[in-house]
Amino acid sequence: MYAIFKKELKQYFTSPIGYVFIAVFMCVSGFFFWGYNIASGSADMTGFFSQMTFVFLIMVPFLTMRLIVEEKSEKTDQLLFTAPITSAEIVWGKALAAFAVFAVTAVIMIIYPIVLMMCYDGKFAWGVTFCNYIGFFLMGCAYISIGLFISSFTENQIVSAVLTFAVLLLLYLIQALSDMFASNAVKSIINALAINVRYNNDFALGILSLPSVIYYLSIVCIFVFLTYRNIELRKISK
Q1: Whole-angstrom Cα distance, residue 69 to residue 152?
Q2: CA–CA separation, 9 and 94 (whole Å)
Q3: In what helix (H) or strand (E) does residue 173 lie, and over which residues does it extend?
Q4: With a threshold of 0.85, does the pTM exceed it?
Q5: Any residues with CB less than 8 A from the CB of 152 and at least 6 apart, and which?
Q6: pLDDT tens digit string along 208-224?
Q7: 228 and 99 in contact (C-beta within 8 Å)?
Q8: Interatomic CA distance for residues 11 and 187, integer angstroms
Q9: Of 12, 28, 97, 224, which shows the fewest CB atoms inside 10 Å?
Q10: What is the rounded CA–CA span in Å between residue 185 and residue 126?
Q11: Mean of the pLDDT values across residues 13-41?
Q12: Is 64 left (phi over 0), alpha (psi -120 to 50) or beta?
């Protein structure tokens, strides 16, 4: 698994993808940080993170579109299938590489709370900001795992990116549908599918909820497993 992780991480930074992803993300986050915190004189980063969760949704397809698709298009998937490595190790190696690029971006973003702490010492809520960071990272990893799964179905990176964006946007907006149903059971199902509900109801309010942490980790494990199963089926069909 480490060999796959190392290979994928290297590819992110020997091609423009990793650098462009981080650069664009930091430029956009810097714009929102200036607007929500510096220009408005606010030490509360809740609004900033709320915007960045949607921005990351838009950017995830560019991070995940090549993970499995590239192996298919370059016909290197056959080499992976015959290599002395399991499908689970292949999938987790690729997933962890994408998580690592996201983690690098999240670490760079720590400069924002440091600036606020220096400017608004005594008013800055470290606890709430920490919960926002944790929720933002966990939800981001869930997005990435879904993008990885979709990438395993297509042979075109553009198609993979478009499908990933469409699915993530649907999961992001689906909460609005819950108000259309009177049944509490239906509402519960919709809220379970709405991937941002846990973030908004817990992490954004400064609540580090164990069920919400487990929820996002479960999404990651489920979609990594589904990707693994899809690759195993392709092995059999070959």
Answers
A1: 6
A2: 8
A3: helix 157-173
A4: yes
A5: 68, 227, 230, 231
A6: 989 999 999 999 999 99
A7: no
A8: 42
A9: 28
A10: 36
A11: 91
A12: alpha
